[in-house]
Amino acid sequence: MLVDFAVLADYALIDQHGKLSVLGLFQHVWVGSFPAVHPRTHLVLRVRGRRTEVGTHPIRIRFVDEAGAELMGGDGTVQFGEPPAGVTEIEAGAVLVFDVPLPRPGPYAFEITVDEGFAVRVPLSASQLPDEG
């Protein structure tokens, strides 16, 4: 199992046929002052595996600051059903929506781990808007 696609976006959805649509990719935000919250941040993932990995797999998401301190996080599962005959790879998409806490300017990251394997990092940095004076 591996996360082969992970981005931050203004909006994303998965339609009834499993097609992923993503709008407004970003890795940096500007805020008026700190501490701040970036509302309705969409974390978009696609997880892939082999047919032999059908079933439930644990997933962990952490939002960390530059020192690695966890600001928020959670555990869940990804469920892979049996694919049609002849299909050897399986995939699942996910769109998770967060109000992201930003206590100070600087670098942050979402760390995503599936099956307690290698963590994928999705960077996010934050800066304060300059005074217009």
Descriptive notes:
The protein is mainly β and 133 residues long. The chain has no helices and nine strands. The protein has strands at residues 2-14, 20-26, 28-31, 36-50, 55-65, 70-80, 89-102, 106-114, 120-128. The strands form two sheets. It has a five-stranded mixed sheet with strand order 3-9-8-5-6, with no helix packed on it. The radius of gyration is 17 Å and the shape is elongated. The mean pLDDT is 92.
Question: Tags for this entry?
Answer:
elongated; four-stranded antiparallel beta sheet; five-stranded mixed beta sheet; single chain; mainly beta; 133 residues
Order of helices and strands: EEEEEEEEE
Number of helices: 0
Q: Report the radius of gyration as a whole number of Å.
A: 17 Å
Strand sequence of the main sheet, in spatial order?
3-9-8-5-6
Mean pLDDT: 92
Write the layout of secondary structure elements.
Blueprint: E1 2-14, E2 20-26, E3 28-31, E4 36-50, E5 55-65, E6 70-80, E7 89-102, E8 106-114, E9 120-128
Parallel strand pairs: 3-9
Antiparallel strand pairs: 1-2, 1-4, 4-7, 5-6, 5-8, 8-9
Structure, briefly:
0% of the residues lie in helices and 70% in strands. The chain is mainly β and 133 residues long. The strands form two sheets. It has a five-stranded mixed beta sheet with strand order 3-9-8-5-6, with no helix packed on it. Strands 2-1-4-7 form a four-stranded antiparallel beta sheet, with no helix packed on it.
